[in-house]
Write a structure and sequence with these properties.
The complex is a heterotrimer. Chain A is an alpha+beta fold. Helices cover 47% and strands 12% of the residues of chain A. Chain A has one domain (62-379): Orthogonal Bundle (Cytochrome-c3 Hydrogenase, chain B). Classes of the chains: A alpha+beta, B alpha+beta, C mainly alpha.
Chain lengths: 380, 158, 358
């Protein structure tokens, strides 16, 4: 429920109340919130007493929209939820529909899907890395991260036809076969990435200012991570094993060699390191698959009109931000009766108040950076 | 011991800062690494990949013939109501009535370039074009009629 | 001889021939004022363009390249835009203070121009306590920032101003102490004396250990004093949107913006004067061809070259480092820079008393 807070009703022109506390509105238009998140912060001087997120500024009722779209059509809308891992969102929806149809996916399509997912994950983490450094006041890493991210986007553009909202996954496989240049371009990207990855450490990770800003800040204990429902790198930074790719493997993840990245500590730096190391694991997966794409169909044969049997279907995947669950209730028609998305950003945001209390405003920005919030994903 | 640690701390800090500064001065002096493009100037040489989804178009051959049968598969496939197929009945030479398209109205302002219409089309009548500069001053210009005036369906397309 | 001091002397003689000395002095003052304002405008344009170019090249971008050849006219276009924009005064603001604050920032920056030696014998006012004057006046900058922050009636502005107050007051100390090192070694507060003391080599090249330490501390402290990244907590755009000038727009914002760049120029000019010999050319040994070639380069070129080198250094910091947090910022000053510069000053004083310096 939306709560009316003091700040909304505040009438007195005075800035500081009698107790020395005051509230400040961060957002919905604020450079640090990366979107239209609205945080009402109660402060005492520079120290944060309370953080209260207000949502709904970019609510587009995607779940309701999906109820009027067919099982082929609703997938494209989900690209607009977590636009940085659009592929993985589409993948989750396609998996849910396939579960309902009990459809067997050709091996080639599976490999292409996993490749695309991992490329998306790297691209998303690249952008996060740049934005994170920008939150801390360093502008240069943002542009350096975009160099690698752009080369992934170029690969996407060549194969999927779009850079951000690709709509490439369809029930039964992928929409088109990979472009003939795909393998060459991905290998070029891997080469570029390996040339440039040490710069990330030189510019940001090793920097003494950065480390002082990140270490022992925003500590999230494993128990709290579980009870707040954190997933993805946010929880893995507190050493909570929650990688869906390992626990409930989908597609071919159970046959691949990669490590679940876990960091002890639970502070901002641990969450940062999880994402940096996760990029390397994604690169490892891409390297295993890029030369081993099996021949065959890229899409299973499906009927022109998809009808899911009556029932409930739930799938979950690991997006760049955590666990995305897709829950479909079907009445047997061509459109879903109800769709619910369990988005990672929403749960991860809920922990912000808990970890931010008692720290400084500058730390709040750093914590929000390490939670890697994408606001359309929270509001949907 | 305190002094040694203090000096070590200061030295480590200075070293880490110097590493970062070395990296930035490298890019400051190496202009070959610049990756940005001067966009409006390179418009003529800019080539987009053939799969790029810019807008939906309907290709016509030199005799002003297209492949659209007016089956409305694209209209049904579209999630946003972007495409509207308006059909009419043509008279064939034998005197029979035959369904054909009068207008295929395409609302670019509603389109999300999801490619579902192109996938759904059974006769490959529409495809994605690689255009990308869509801004106009009047939104009516975004409503397009894809078939050329006076165009006919190609022979042999059912 | 077309040196700046020669031109100045010619004008001075010509004015004294034409008018009585009082009028000549008044006219000279007006001319100096116009010259300083002109220098301000030019410096603002040049430094903004320089900042954008440095940023772009470090960030593997091209930088401004649309207006004029190589984008040289870009800052002109920016200025024009800022002039035609509406200078908004918020409803709840303290209007008088809100409107005065940017001008105070400019006046402080202008006052600081007085004791700077731009070339050989070319100085507006060679007062005998020149360096003290600079340290005293530059701390007035905080007044304008506090005024702007308080009068805006905006919590972001207030926090930015308070941060800036804490920051400038703290870093004044180590900046002052590192300047003191040079004063102790030179034995004079006068700018021209300090420059002449470096006749046989710049302080930084004379091989005095305390001078090196003082130079590093000076650069760090003035970066903080001028609110430049990594110490830009007063405007910290990812935390406080724009800090103390959140509510300012149009030309009033531009004045703050300009004052920041002028302050950077001035602290770098002082740094160049104290540590790098001001307008003094680079000399090695005595009386050789290299020294003569160096002498041939005009002294104003030397001065501006050194100053811009230091400005580049500060820009380089800005585009490399993340921002510090407020408590870390004060830790750095009170736990690291201040003790180091105090010991350093002690060392320099011992050297001066024992006569080890040269």
């Amino acid at each position: 429920m939306y709560r009316q807070t003091e700040i909304v009703q505040e009438k007195s022109p005075g800035i500081v109340g009698e107790s020395g506390e005051f509230t400040i509105n961060v957002g919905p238009q604020h450079p640090a919130t990366h979107g239209v998140l609205h945080l009402v912060i109660t402060l005492s001087g520079e120290t944060i007493l309370k953080v209260e997120p207000h949502l709904g500024y970019i609510h587009r009722s995607i779940e309701k929209m999906c109820e009027s779209l067919t099982y082929r059509q609703f997938i494209y809308v989900t690209s607009r939820m977590d636009y940085l891992s659009a592929h993985i969102n589409n993948h989750a929806c396609a998996l849910a529909v396939e579960k309902g149809l009990q459809l067997e996916i050709p091996p080639r399509a599976q490999v292409i899907r996993v490749l695309m997912d991992e490329l998306t994950r790297v691209a998303s983490h690249e952008l996060w890395w740049g934005a994170m450094a920008m939150d801390l006041g360093a502008f240069t890493p943002f542009f350096h991260a975009f160099r690698e991210r752009e080369s992934i986007n170029d690969i996407m553009e060549e194969t999927c036809g779009a850079r951000l909202t690709m709509n490439y996954m369809v029930p039964g496989g992928v929409m088109q076969d990979i472009h003939p240049n795909f393998q060459r371009r991905v290998k070029e990207f891997l080469k570029l990435y390996k040339q440039k990855i040490h710069e990330y450490d030189e510019l940001v990770t090793g920097n003494i200012i950065f480390q002082n800003r990140m270490k022992n800040i925003g500590i999230l204990s494993p128990e709290d991570a579980v009870s707040y429902g954190c997933t993805g790198p946010t929880a893995r930074g507190s050493a909570v094993s929650c990688d869906i790719r390992k626990i409930y493997p989908y597609e071919i993840y159970d046959k691949l060699e990669f490590d679940e990245v876990l960091e002890e500590g639970g502070d901002s730096f641990a969450r940062y390191m999880v994402r940096i190391r996760e990029m390397q694991q994604s690169i490892r997966i891409i390297e295993q698959l890029i030369d081993n794409i099996p021949e065959g169909e890229f899409q299973a044969k499906t009927k022109a009109v998809l009808k899911l049997p009556k029932g409930e279907f739930y799938t979950r995947v690991e997006t760049a931000r955590g666990e995305l669950g897709v829950y479909i209730v079907s009445e047997g028609g061509t459109t879903p009766y109800r769709i619910k998305f369990r988005s990672p950003g929403f749960s991860n945001l809920s922990v912000l108040d808990h970890i931010a209390r008692g720290s400084k405003i500058g730390d709040l920005v750093a914590m929000m950076g390490t939670l890697d919030l994408v606001i359309p994903d929270i509001d949907r | 011991m305190f002094i040694t640690n203090y000096i070590k701390e200061v030295w480590g800090a200075v070293k880490s800062l110097a590493t970062g500064m070395k990296r930035t001065i490298y890019y400051f002096t190496h202009h070959k690494e610049i990756i940005t493009q001067e966009y409006p100037d390179n418009r003529d040489t800019l080539v987009l990949p053939e799969r790029f989804k810019g807008e939906v178009v309907m290709p016509h051959n030199q005799d002003n013939e297209h492949r659209c049968t007016g089956c409305t598969a694209c209209e049904l496939a579209c999630p946003n109501g972007t495409i509207k197929v308006i059909t009419k009945f043509d008279l064939t030479p034998e005197g029979k009535k035959k369904k054909a398209i009068d207008k295929l109205v395409y609302h670019l302002e509603l389109c999300t370039m999801c490619n579902l219409c192109v996938e759904a089309c059974p006769s490959d009548a529409i495809k994605m074009a690689q255009t990308y500069e869509h801004s106009v001053f009047d939104r009516n210009q975004l409503t397009k009629i894809l078939n050329n005036p006076g165009s006919k369906i190609m022979e042999g397309v059912e | 001889m077309w040196s700046l001091s020669h031109i100045a002397n010619e004008i001075h003689r010509w004015l004294n021939d034409l008018f009585n000395p009082t009028w000549a002095l008044i006219i000279e003052m007006v001319m100096a004022g116009v010259a300083v304002i002109g220098l301000f405008a030019v410096l603002g344009l040049v430094l903004v363009l320089m900042e954008r170019r440095v940023a772009a090249w470090i960030q593997i971008r091209l930088g401004p390249n649309r207006v004029g050849p190589f984008g040289l006219m870009q800052s002109m276009a920016d200025t024009l835009k800022l002039i035609v924009k509406e200078g908004l005064t918020p409803d709840g603001a303290d209007k008088v203070m809100f409107n005065i604050a940017p001008f105070i920032a400019m006046i402080v920056a202008m006052l600081l121009m007085a004791p700077i030696a731009f070339a050989k014998d070319f100085q507006l006012w060679d007062l005998n306590i020149g360096v003290l004057f600079v340290t005293a006046v530059s701390s007035l900058m905080v007044v304008s920032i506090l005024m702007a922050g308080w009068s805006s009636n905006n919590k972001y502005s207030l926090m930015g101003a308070m941060r800036s107050g804490a920051q400038i007051v703290s870093y004044e100390l180590s900046a002052g102490l590192s300047i003191m090192t040079i004063i102790v070694l030179t034995g004079s507060l006068q700018v021209s004396d300090i420059i002449h003391a470096q006749n046989n080599g710049w302080w930084i090249f004379k091989g005095h250990f305390p001078v090196w330490v003082a130079f590093v501390i000076y650069i760090i402290a003035v970066t903080a004093e001028t609110n430049r990244a990594p110490f830009d907590l007063a405007e910290a755009e990812s935390e406080l949107t724009a800090g103390f000038h959140t509510e300012y727009s149009g030309m009033k914002f531009a004045l703050f913006f300009l004052a920041e760049y002028i302050n950077v120029f001035i602290v770098c000019a002082i740094g160049a004067t104290l540590f790098l010999g001001g307008w003094m050319p680079l000399h090695f040994g005595t009386d050789n061809a290299f020294n003569q070639a160096m002498d041939w380069i005009p002294s104003s070129v030397w001065f501006f070259g050194k100053t811009f080198f230091l400005i580049f250094l500060i820009m380089w910091f800005r585009w490399t480092f993340p921002r510090l947090r407020i408590d870390q910022l004060l830790n750095l000053e009170w736990k690291y820079l201040l003790p180091i510069s105090m010991i350093n000053l002690l060392l320099a004083t011992a050297m001066a008393i024992l006569g080890w310096h040269f």
